[in-house]
Design goal:
- Chain B: This is Ferrous iron transport protein A.
- The complex is a heterodimer of chains A (about 625) and B (about 80).
- With about 625 residues, chain A is an alpha/beta fold.
- Among the domains of chain A are: about 5-205, P-loop containing nucleotide triphosphate hydrolases (Rossmann fold), CATH 3.40.50.300; about 240-285 and about 440-555, no CATH class.
- Chain A is built from 28 helices and twelve strands.
- In chain A, strands 2-3-4-1-5-6-8 form a seven-stranded mixed beta sheet, sandwiched between helices. Chain A has a two-stranded antiparallel ribbon with strand order 7-9.
- The longest helix of chain A has about 35 residues, at about 440-475.
- Chain A is elongated, with a radius of gyration of 28 Å.
- Chain B has about 80 residues and is of the alpha+beta class.
- Chain B has one domain: SH3 type barrels (Roll), CATH 2.30.30.90.
- Chain B is built from two helices and five strands.
- The two termini of chain B are about 15 Å apart.
- Classes of the chains: A alpha/beta (about 625), B alpha+beta (about 80).
- Strand 12 (about 430) of chain A pairs antiparallel with strand 4 of chain B, so a sheet runs across the interface.
């Protein structure tokens, strides 16, 4: 029988630097999965002791106590107590403490130590505590807690070796099983505070960076201006910084397409490669730079500690529609992708507010809409400037984001009033100290995002593209019959059925065709259009030119605007629907979500189309 | 004096918390964040524009954001 490596759980308060420590101990080889039976993300990784023995590490969700008030905290409790079915109990705990916040973190530490598992305490972020003028006596803390204490600075990889050595020693020391000791909450609190006070060697007022920054970033007026400026910068950057890398990717695919055209004889297989695979997948991968820039901003906001400040600034605005600043963080993440956004709602304590947030998350303009928006804006909106550094195209994109936000606000107000019938919302959150984001952690996270996107492009989008190409290519229209290949194909005939429904909102046959595979994911609409137009092109030169000019020649401006309005609302993403079903435990809410969003999309596209028409566009 | 009326940047001690007026969940989270009678706190910032809500409050060495309706349940006394 092979012996399983010991399982060690990292556990501690939110903002104790637990994930940074986990990254530092396990490196880039991490496995991300879910805990059995729940959708809480389980991050695990391997570390090795000095003697080469492997040890499995897991990074438990941050918690304040073993008495949970969120789904995340419940998982932490169940794993620590060994109550999570299908998951083994850890062989040891590493309790991660923020050295600068012992008053608040020690109570949970005492509660954990009382569980009787072998334990090592990581006194983390000692450098930040020192920066703030705090000197601690680690040995005294160890005596008071009855567990070894190692000083660490995870972001600088300080104290990692001593921590692993102590962990090894603790695991290999035979010990009598200890019965958990029950102590009352108040008594533990008092004990925690007494210990925290006793281990302080010296305390000066320090530099208090956080406080000074807060007086600017939380300023009643300045804070709002800064937040809006940051968001605007973020969206301008998505457009501006991505231009060059997008150009490289496009020329790369063009070269590849040319090479294949030159190397293979004209025929079905060549059409499959150039019109199907390269046109389809290429038109989606081109948006990777924009998606990464968006995620980069969100990761930086989170890692620096600003995200909760943004929630603070936005709380009253969110309260106007029955939500709170808590909802702001998942909703901002939804600008990158609704799936992590919806999963981030698990930190919202109020269940009605959580549900409302899930239901409106798909209205935040996610990165999958960018391909659609970019193509249409590029084709129909002139690339002029309307002010210093502000392009018209960027402004229209900003307008689409605003449309999504206003739609979400309206939806939230209606949902909280009539669906969840929630009367109050609450906002109560810890605001961590500001920190410089660590490049390695950001890069690791960004790489994980890019990989997920490329995997999607390589699987779902690839498959949808191939199927669509086949549906568009067969049966073959006769040359010289006067009927176009698209109209004659299987897909053309399916779209015939859909067309009468979408005709009133200004959509043409090609759009009807693109909407079907876009149900899998919105960005597929672009690759579908690319495939449609590549196949319909009379000759190779026309096929080689990009999609935008073809759309501009073929669609009216009113149709283009209606198409944009449709995608502000349409819930065309299988993954979002699936994750909503998982997070709400049933089909009721995803069905509700899809229905109201399609109704909104249809209405918005119709209104846009007919308004534009009445202006003669 | 209730926390929502506390002047900014003045240390105060929590005298009592009216747990009964707080929803269970909020009371529980408030406790987890270290709000208890006898603890020193300090109001640092008030919310945006005309609302002046929520509040940012220092508890121990931590900053916590909370709404004024919760703050109203916390009775404090300014330190001399």
């Amino acid at each position: 029988m092979t012996q399983m490596p010991p399982l060690v759980a990292l556990v501690g308060n939110p903002n104790a630097g637990k994930s940074a420590l986990f990254n530092a101990l396990t490196g880039a080889r991490q496995k991300i999965a879910n805990y059995p039976g729940v959708t809480v993300e389980r991050k695990s990784g391997r570390a090795t002791f000095d003697d080469g023995q492997p040890v499995e590490m897991i990074d438990l969700p941050g918690a304040y106590s073993l008495d949970p008030d969120s789904l995340d905290e419940a998982v932490t409790r169940d794993v620590v107590l060994g109550n999570l079915e299908g998951h083994r109990r850890p062989d040891a705990l590493v309790i991660v403490l923020d050295a600068g916040n012992l008053d608040n973190h020690l109570r949970f530490a005492l509660e954990l130590i009382a569980q009787g598992l072998p334990t090592v305490v990581a006194l983390n972020m000692v450098d930040l505590a020192e920066r703030d003028g705090l000197q601690l006596d680690a040995e005294k803390l160890a005596r008071a807690l009855g567990a070894p204490v190692i000083e660490t600075v995870a972001v600088r990889r300080r104290g990692l070796a001593p921590l692993m050595a102590e962990l090894e020693r603790t695991l290999k020391t035979p010990r009598a099983s200890v019965e958990p000791v029950a102590v009352s909450f108040g008594a533990k609190n008092q004990q925690a505070r007494d210990i925290a006070r006793s281990v302080i060697v010296s305390e000066t007022s320090g530099r208090q960076w956080t406080r000074r920054l807060d007086s600017v970033l939380l300023h009643p007026v300045g804070g709002v201006v800064i937040l809006l400026a940051l968001l605007f910068l973020m969206f301008q950057a998505v457009y501006g910084w991505s231009e060059a890398p997008i150009g490289w990717i496009e020329s790369g695919f063009a070269l590849l397409s040319d090479a294949i055209t030159g190397a293979l004889p004209d025929g079905l297989f060549r059409s499959f490669l150039t019109d199907g695979v390269i046109a389809g997948v290429g038109s989606v991968i081109v948006f990777l730079p924009q998606i990464l820039i968006l995620f980069l901003f969100i990761l930086l906001l989170e890692a620096s500690g600003y995200m909760t400040r943004a929630a603070f600034v936005m709380d009253r605005v969110m309260a106007a529609v029955g939500l709170s600043g808590h909802s702001f963080i998942p909703l901002l993440s939804s600008f990158a992708c609704a799936i992590p956004g919806i999963m981030a709602t698990r930190t919202i304590m109020d269940q009605k507010e959580r549900l409302a947030t899930i239901l409106i998350a798909p209205l935040m303009t996610c990165s999958a809409r960018l391909p659609v928006y970019t193509v249409i804006i590029g084709a129909f909106i002139p690339s002029t400037t309307v002010g210093p550094g502000i392009g018209l195209q960027g402004l229209v994109l900003f307008g689409l984001y605003i449309a999504g936000i206003l739609g979400a606000m309206l939806a939230a107000a209606v949902i909280q009033r009539f669906v969840t019938q929630s009367r109050t919302s609450s906002f109560l959150i810890e605001m961590p100290r500001y920190q410089w984001p660590r490049l390695r952690d950001i890069a690791l996270n960004l790489w994980q995002r890019a990989w997920v996107f490329l995997r999607r492009a390589g699987t779902i989008i690839f498959a949808a593209t191939i199927i669509l190409w086949a549906l568009l290519s067969f049966p073959k229209a006769h040359v010289g019959s006067g009927i176009s290949q698209v109209e004659y194909s299987f897909a053309g005939r399916v779209a015939d059925g859909l067309e009468p429904i979408v005709r009133p909102i200004g959509f043409n046959h090609d759009i009807a065709l693109a909407l079907i595979p876009a149900m899998a994911a919105r960005e597929v609409a672009v690759s579908a259009l690319a495939t449609v137009y590549a196949i319909d092109a009379a000759d190779e030169d026309a096929a080689a030119s990009s999609l935008g000019p073809k759309l501009a020649a073929d669609w009216s401006l009113a149709t283009a605007l209606a198409f944009l309005a449709w995608f502000v609302f349409a819930p065309q993403c299988i993954s979002t629907i699936a994750v909503t079903r998982r997070e709400t435990n049933g089909w009721k809410w995803p069905i509700f979500m899809v229905t109201y969003l399609f109704a909104l999309a249809y209405a918005a596209a119709g209104i846009t189309y007919w308004t534009a028409r009445s202006f003669g566009l | 004096m209730q926390l929502d009326h506390l002047p900014l940047n003045r240390a105060a001690v929590i005298r009592a918390i009216d747990w009964d007026v707080l929803p269970d969940q909020e009371g529980h989270r408030l406790r987890s964040l270290g709000f208890e009678p006898g603890v020193t706190i300090e109001a640092l910032h008030k919310g945006i524009l005309m609302w002046r809500d929520p509040l940012a409050v220092r508890v121990g060495r931590m900053t916590v954001a909370l709404r004024t309706n919760v703050a109203a349940a916390i009775d404090c006394e300014l330190k001399p």
